[in-house]
Write a structure and sequence with these properties.
With about 475 residues, this protein is α+β, with helices and mostly antiparallel strands. It is about 35% helix and about 20% strand. It has 2 domains: about 35-275, 2-Layer Sandwich (Endonuclease, Chain A); about 290-475, 2-Layer Sandwich (Endonuclease, Chain A). The two termini are about 40 Å apart.
Length: about 475
Amino acid sequence: MTMKLVACLLLLGLIGLGVWHSYNPLPEGIRFAGNPAPLMSPRLLTDTTRHFPNGEAKLDHEIFDEALRLIAQAERLVLIDMFLYNSTGSEDTELRPLARQLTEALIEKKRATPDIDIVVISDPLNTFYGGNRSPEFDALKEAGIEVIITRLEPLRDSNPAWSALWRVCCQWLGNNPDGGWLPNALGNEKTTLRSYLALPNFKANHRKVLVTDASDQFRALITSANPHNGSSRHSNIGLTFGGPAVRDVIKSERAVAQMSGANTQTFDRWLNQLATTDHTAPETSGAIKLLTESAIRDQALDMINRSRHGEAIDIAMFYFSHRPIIEALKGAQQRGVRIRLLLDANKDAFGHEKNGIPNRPVGHELHQAGIPVRWCNTQGEQCHSKLLIYTPETGTQELLLGSANFTRRNLDDLNLESNIWLSIANEHPVAQKATAFFNDHWEGEYQSHLPLSLPYSEWADGSRLKYWQYRLMEATGLSTF
């Protein structure tokens, strides 16, 4: 009887721990919603991979070319927060060595300008949660560059069924990057059991952010692209901009540094300086605001729910599984909103074949509701953009883009995410390029290369088993999306 009572108490304790860490208060500054600010000098950046019948591919990629250019011209500040920052996949000679290129650019900048502040924030996945060394991070540290590995423990648990037990049994264990003895699912070096025990927590700092100074101004980049060799062929989208919204980007990154136990004096100094910076410009292009975590969800729902008959919603998304957004789209369809949904077929992941979850079950559900769905025509790479375009009848266009997939983990205060919302005139170059990017993928004019997307029938999947598998994975957090 005593053992049964102890077992029941332990089980109740684990359940209570799981519930608490699923809803515990967020660390200070996490879930940031900036106020609309003047949009200054925006530039939309797109990465598109085009395939040809002979098997060749052409990469029309802009994002990291611009990121490296911004770093090269910086004089006082480079702030980076990137989720995947490693050279995994470099054995494929067709992959661009993005991790090495970014690392060399930062080290060269530090050597040329020793007084510059360079801060790199990244996710512990790049060291397999402490079980491996990162050659990139080690080189940065040796060059005098501050590297902050995000502490994920203060965040809410997205997979409480495992995380409650992990917090009791394994969180306190150390890890040894030189003590690996197990095959590594994420690389070539041996790793530890402790790394595999941390992996099923399934949460991350998923942001993709860059801030640099440019003469007497500052610019920020918010994107869906990672400096990761294995991701170098993915299609992505990003936006660079100046003005007062850059200060919000630094403020949101300060919260991550503080949560991770890092010294925030560099952030405070630049926040104070930008607070007194004159952001006046001859003209502004519209309005912009920074959004992180669930503030992204709230903005997406607001855009969809405001849409009316005759207006348009276009979405391009790598992972799409968030139930409130799915239901909001169904409601918009019933109101007569013109909706187009461009999805990755979830068939490829760095050389491994996937089963189509969650996008194919969700695509089937929305196709059945009358919403047009097309699949990106990928050939091993991923259709990695995260973009929502709302075109109302007023002559303006609203864009929402950045790191966040439309999933529970990305939108419900579990991962760290960074997106920007902007409102601009339909004839503005950014609006026209965003529309052209989507239209080109949807059903553009093709001469020599293969179409960028395929009709719904190509990857249609009405399996009820997969549908309920997706619903269970989404609800419980027992998934990687």
